[in-house]
Each structure stands twice: as C-alpha cells, then as structure tokens.
Amino acid sequence: MDESSGDRGLGRPGAAPALETSLTLDGDGSRIAQARHLAAAFLTKVKAECGTPVAADTVQIVQLIVSELVTNARKYAPGPALLRLRTTGPVLRVELWDSNPVLPAAEAPDPSRIRRHGLEIVAALARAITVEQTSVGKRITADVTLATA
Questions:
Q1: CA separation for the pair 132, 134 (Å, rounded)
Q2: Is a pLDDT exceeding 80 seen at residue 10?
Q3: Are 85 and 6 in contact (CB under 8 A)?
Q4: CA distance 135 to 77
Q5: What does the domain layout of the chain look like in residue ranges?
Q6: 3-state secondary structure 67-87
Q7: Contact 146, 58 (CB under 8 A)
Q8: Distance from first CA to last CA of the chain, Å, rounded?
Q9: Residue 36: partners with Cβ closer than 8 Å, 6 or more residues away
Q10: Residues facing residue 144 across a β-bridge
C-alpha cells in the first residue's frame, strides 16, 4: 500500500489549485476502509486549502463511490489497483485502475437481484462515469460536483 498527495496546479491565473492524492491497493482487499478515510481527508484538504465549497453530503457520496469501486476491483481483478482523487475546478474526479481488462456493464434495475449493484450505484451518484480499457486492465472514472449552486 502506498499513499501520496500533492498540489498539481494547472498554472491558470486565478484558478483554484488542483489537488490530488492516490492510494496503491494491494491484492488482499483489506484497504477499503482506508480508501474511504483517504477520500474524506482529501475533501477536507480541498475545502481548507483551495477554499472550494464542499456540499455537506458530498463527503458521504464520494466515500460510497470509492467504496464501491475499490470493492469491485478487489472482487473481480487480481493484483494491485490504484485509486486517485483529484480536483478539476469544482469537480472531484475519482479514478480507479485495476488489472482486469473486462469492462463492467451496469445491469437493468432489478429489485430481486441481490448483488452486482456497484456500478449502478456509482452511475447514480456521479455526475459522469467512464469505463475504458488500458494496456494493463481498465480505468473507471467518476466525476462528482463538489458543491451545488
């Protein structure tokens, strides 16, 4: 497990500095709580250092998105995964890379289905979601608006 954070300013005059943090997750599946805590701490830092307003429920929403993405990576992808959180203006981008090249697909809502709701939950909570193959697996990206007008 490896955690890093930093200021990745985009160099635009007057723009809030872009912040990012990441967490490398090993294959044992024991880091879901740590990923959730990282997300909460990162949003606190964004609010304090950038002055970006963060809606009251946004922290819980982001923690749920992180939890679903990390859980799915642990369940379906062997080996390590990488979680990255970064701000882009008023948007938080949650990215998760894993080693499974199979792209997940959200299933039609079915109240009788017991499992496989993770991507459905992420899609409902995020402003946008993308799933793409990479040279070593896949990347899932979920964008969340930090504050509502």
A1: 6
A2: no
A3: no
A4: 14
A5: 2-145
A6: HHHHHHHHHHCCCCEEEEEEE
A7: yes
A8: 37
A9: 63, 66, 67
A10: 92
> What is the distance between the alpha carbons of residues 39 and 123, in angstroms, rounded to a whole number?
18
Q: What is the pLDDT of residues 97-145, one digit of tens each?
A: 999 999 987 777 778 877 777 888 999 999 999 999 999 999 999 999 9
| Tokens describing residue 113 | 């289905």
pTM given for the model = 0.85
Instruction: Please tell me the distance from the alpha carbon of residue 138 to that of residue 26, in angstroms, as a whole number.
Output: 16
Q: Quick check: helix, strand or coil at residue 54?
A: coil
Contact between 6 and 20 (Cβ < 8 Å): yes
Task: List the structure tokens of 80.
Answer: 């390590």
Q: Side chain identity at 64, as an amino acid letter?
A: L
Contact between residue 142 and residue 106 where contact means Cβ atoms under 8 Å apart: no
Would you call 90 exposed, middle or buried from its count of C-beta atoms within 10 A (0-12, 13-18, 19+)? middle
Please give the structure tokens belonging to residue 148. 């509502």
- What is 2-145's CATH superfamily? Histidine kinase-like ATPase, C-terminal domain (3.30.565.10)
Distance of alpha carbon 108 from alpha carbon 85, whole angstroms? 28
- What span, in angstroms and rounded, lies between the C-alpha atoms of 49 and 67? 25
